Amino acid sequence: MTSEEKWNCVIENDISSDGKFFYAVKTTKIFCKPSCKSKTPLRNNVTFFNTKQEAIDAGYRPCKRCRPDLLQFNPSEDIVYKTKNLIDMYFSNTDDLEKQIQTLGVNKNHLNKIFLNYYGKTITQYLRFVRVEKAKLMLLEGSKIIESAFECGFGSVSSFYSSFKKETGYAPKTFIKIMQNNK
After folding, report:
1. 32 given a catalytic annotation
2. Highest taxon of the source (predicted)?
3. Which residue, 71, 4, 2, 1, is CA-closest to 31?
């Protein structure tokens, strides 16, 4: 990875680059992970290191915000993982799911943003995905469309049809026919 590629990772707060390299700010004598949310330093004040030990040996101390000395320290990952598990458990009951997510004590917009960062889907998109996957299983086991829709937490049959088509590309009846023909 070139210095310019590393710099782009720093500017973008690229979490996927954490652990691959570290950057240090000459003026503060602090080193950080690429995903650090601190103010972006001036490019001419930044130097890069491949390991945290190289940065420490060069006289830099770890950032207290991103904790590059504790590479496993990632509070966002824990919250996102808990959110995903809550969706997997409470997908069929929106009210219970909302209450459980509120117990995490994280702003909903922030949670949605970090969830998207980790899983590539918003919470709503992931919830729809989980519900449709469960509905697909129910339909293949012989459940009626209406029963599957409400059992999986959809508020109406029309929202079920819309979500099902978004996720699978097919209406539920078409999906059932295709799956039966493929047996």
Report:
1. yes
2. Bacteria
3. 71
- Given this model, what pLDDT does residue 72 score? 65
Residue pair 31/63 in contact (Cβ under 8 Å)? The answer is yes
What local confidence, expressed as pLDDT, does residue 70 receive? 82
Of the candidates 32, 36, 66, 152, the residue annotated as catalytic is 32
Dist CA 81 CA 85 (whole Å): 6
| Matching residue, tokens 């009626």 | 144
Residue 68 lies inside a defined structural domain of this protein: no
Could you give the maximum distance between any two Cα atoms of the chain, in Å?
A: 68
Amino acid residing at 69: D
Specify the pLDDT at position 24: 97
Q: What are phi and psi of 25, to 5 degrees?
A: -105, 120
Domain residue limits at 16? 3-62
Report the predicted TM-score, pTM, of the whole model to 2 decimal places. 0.62
State the Cα–Cα distance between residues 82 and 59, nearest whole angstrom: 38
50 and 87, same domain (yes or no) = no
Q: Is 31 left (phi over 0), alpha (psi -120 to 50) or beta?
A: beta
In the predicted structure, residue 73 carries a pLDDT above the cut 70:
no
* 84 and 145 within one domain: yes
On the CB side of 182, how many CA atoms lie within 13 Å of its CA?
7
